[in-house]
């Protein structure tokens, strides 16, 4: 029997100039590996049991970046990716999954950039990112590990209208 996909949300947080927030992962997390030069990604995380995806995306955004002030712009349907082969301990929290089944959300930062602090532990979740920056949405797929690239290309196509600075 094949392993299930882990329910997950992804965040495309746009600033007023139409750029998205990306963070630099500074360590592997089981099958979620990083590769030299491909350490960047948008925030994402698991959906808790009985949690609504819209609630999950706001929780994950806050846990990983500290941002609380963001408005909903849109969302994708469900997208999936497979983890690369994993030979680590079977007890790792992600080892029971074949990959992630994600719903991505486009959000607009409505607060200050001063909220962005990826190095603080929140909800007992260790930091995943040691740096952050704003990037063009159409460039992000070139900065992520290969197993995530197709999902990032789909997200870029679906959220391209938000990448343009609002009037």
3D architecture notes:
By secondary structure, the protein is α+β, with helices and mostly antiparallel strands. The protein has a single domain (11-163), classed as Nucleoside Triphosphate Pyrophosphohydrolase. It has helices at residues 53-65, 137-140, 149-158; strands spanning 5-14, 20-25, 40-41, 44-46, 70-82, 99-109, 129-135. It is globular, with a radius of gyration of 15 Å.
Low-confidence stretches: none
CATH class: Alpha Beta
Q: Give the overall silhouette.
A: globular
Number of helices: 3
* Major β-sheet annotation: 4 strands, mixed
Say which CATH homologous superfamily is assigned.
Answer: Nucleoside Triphosphate Pyrophosphohydrolase
**CATH topology description:** Nucleoside Triphosphate Pyrophosphohydrolase
Rg measurement, Å: 15 Å
Residue-averaged pLDDT, rounded? 94
Task: Classify the secondary structure makeup into a structural class.
Answer: alpha+beta
DSSP summary, beta strand count: 7
Strand content: 25-35%
Please give the CATH architecture.
Alpha-Beta Complex
**What's the end-to-end separation, in Å?**
51 Å
The number of distinct structural domains comes to 1
Helix content: 10-25%
Strand order of the largest sheet: 4-1-6-5
Helix and strand pattern:
EEEEHEEEHH
Protein name: Putative (Di)nucleoside polyphosphate hydrolase
Domain Nudix hydrolase: 4-157
Organism: Bradyrhizobium erythrophlei
Family: Belongs to the Nudix hydrolase family.
């Amino acid at each position: 029997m094949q392993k299930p996909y882990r329910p997950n949300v992804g965040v495309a947080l746009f600033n007023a100039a139409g750029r998205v927030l990306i963070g630099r992962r500074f360590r592997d997390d089981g099958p979620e590996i990083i590769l030299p030069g491909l350490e960047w990604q948008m925030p994402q995380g698991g959906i808790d049991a009985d949690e609504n995806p819209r609630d999950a995306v706001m929780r994950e955004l806050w846990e990983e970046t500290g941002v609380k002030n963001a408005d909903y712009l849109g969302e994708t349907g469900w997208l999936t990716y497979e983890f690369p082969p994993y030979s680590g301990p079977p007890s790792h929290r992600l080892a029971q999954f074949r990959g992630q089944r994600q719903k991505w959300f486009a959000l607009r930062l409505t607060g200050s950039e001063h909220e962005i602090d990826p190095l603080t532990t929140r909800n007992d979740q260790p930091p995943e990112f040691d740096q952050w920056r704003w990037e063009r949405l159409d460039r992000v797929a070139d900065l992520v590990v290969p197993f995530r690239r197709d999902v990032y290309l789909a997200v870029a196509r679906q959220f391209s209208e938000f990448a343009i600075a609002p009037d």
